[in-house]
Automatic annotation (TrEMBL):
Annotated organism of origin: Streptomyces angustmyceticus
Any one GO molecular function term: ATP binding
InterPro entries: ATPase_AAA-3, CbbQ/NirQ/NorQ/GpvN, ChlI/MoxR_AAA_lid, P-loop_NTPase
Domain of life according to the entry: Bacteria
Alphabetical list of Gene3D superfamilies matching this protein: Magnesium chelatase subunit I, C-Terminal domain (1.10.8.80), P-loop containing nucleotide triphosphate hydrolases (3.40.50.300)
One family name in Pfam for this protein: AAA_3
Region annotated Disordered, chain positions: 1-35, 344-363
Upper taxonomic lineage: Bacteria, Bacillati, Actinomycetota, Actinomycetes, Kitasatosporales
The keyword Endoplasmic reticulum appears for this protein: no
Family note: Belongs to the MoxR family.
Record keywords: ATP-binding, Nucleotide-binding
Name of the protein in its database record: MoxR-like ATPase
Domain ATPase AAA-3 residue range list: 71-200
Domain ChlI/MoxR AAA lid per the UniProt entry, residue ranges: 264-336
Length: 363
């Protein structure tokens, strides 16, 4: 029970809680189905954690982005497990996986595909590129030229590829997991803002604790744990989880709180570029996925607050003065979260005449 659940229960009326009763049950409403979905999410989480030791919050965020139908940018120094996290998530799910090693000579057609003239048919035939996969791992994405990086724009936002006037739909679920090194900038091309804004969240793994690093020596010392990693969920299981996340209820007060948080980034004196409306949508979707993973079918301000920095910080551009003061976008977002008023949990967000609020249901 969160602080908001507890405070609301004192008054007997949920503030942000369960949605109005539905005439038709949605995916995951039945107790047996909810149990299966919960077990699926936990299996994937444990499978990735078996490879990435001591970083449960990072694994949870990666799974949240997957279920929220977003894309993940992993940004950290070399050697902390960026690519391994992406590969562990991909191998834990029985779906199509492609890895793209971004290099300066990589071409857009290597990603999207190319039309080749077939001599026998006397016609052009489209050869799909590496983007035609359910999970795409883009390693060192900032080492490719801006022309090649832009090949991802349509696929990440619209989940399709247009080539020679023909549109090709991408498989579902579809997720891009990209890595980049923010320290070594020689021979790299910074991601344009349009590209960064298409990533739902950015995560930094960080160095492990001494205990986790010692355990890593035991687990990774002889062989890579990725070699023994087997899929623990199918693609259709992930689609069911995504459907369940879509049905998570978000009260009007929580939606307004989300908008207020994002709007505060656009007027902050230390930011020359605030978060976009796409950032608002991504924050709300991520909050719904987080609520579902915690066994709730309704989102709380807690979910929005916990995800504000990972979802919003990489979209923001601090001013020159803020950079001189060594102020980061993450610090500014956390200050905004502390400053923006949280909705009052004592006021009901909805009311169904003549009915008692339904019990808590969810994943």
């Amino acid at each position: 029970m969160t602080a908001y659940d507890e405070r609301a229960s004192l008054g007997g009326t949920p503030a942000y809680g369960a949605p109005p009763a539905r005439a038709e049950p949605s995916v995951g409403d039945e107790p047996g189905a909810r149990g299966d979905l919960t077990a699926t999410a936990e299996r994937v989480h444990r499978s990735v954690e078996a490879v990435i030791e001591g970083k449960p919050e990072v694994v949870r965020l990666a799974l949240t982005v997957l279920l929220a139908e977003g894309h993940l940018l992993i940004e950290d120094v070399p050697g902390v497990g960026k690519t391994m996290l992406a590969k562990a998530l991909a191998r834990s799910i029985d779906c199509s996986v492609r890895r793209i090693q971004f290099t300066p000579d990589l071409l857009p057609s290597d990603i999207t595909g190319v039309s080749i003239f077939d001599q026998q048919r006397r016609d052009f035939e489209f050869k799909p590129g590496a983007i035609f996969s359910q999970i795409v791992i883009g390693d060192e994405i900032n080492r490719a030229s801006p022309k090649t990086q832009s090949a991802l724009l349509e696929s990440m936002e619209e989940r399709q590829v247009t080539m020679d006037g023909q549109t090709y739909e991408l498989p579902s679920p579809f997720m891009v997991v990209a890595t980049q090194n923010p320290v070594e900038m020689e021979g790299t091309y910074p991601l344009p803002e349009a590209q960064r804004d298409r990533f739902m969240a950015r995560v930094s793994i960080g160095y492990p604790s001494p205990a986790a690093e010692l355990q890593m020596l035991d687990v990774h010392g002889g062989a890579s744990p990725l070699d023994d990693l087997q899929p623990v969920a199918h693609a259709h299981d992930i689609l069911k989880l995504i459907d369940a996340v879509r049905s998570v209820h978000v009260a009007e007060t929580v939606r307004r709180y989300t908008v207020d948080l994002v709007a505060a980034t656009r007027t902050h004196p230390e930011l020359r570029l605030g978060a976009s409306p796409r950032g608002t949508l991504h924050l709300l979707r991520a909050a719904k996925a987080s609520a579902a993973l915690q066994g709730r079918e309704y989102a709380l301000p807690d979910d929005v607050q916990a995800l504000a920095a990972p979802v919003l910080a990489h979209r923001l551009l601090p001013t020159a003065q803020a950079q001189l003061n060594r102020r980061t976008a993450d610090q500014i977002v956390r200050e905004i979260v502390q400053r923006v008023p949280v909705p009052d949990p004592s006021a009901p967000a909805w009311r169904v005449p003549g009915q008692q609020p339904p019990g808590v249901r969810g994943l």
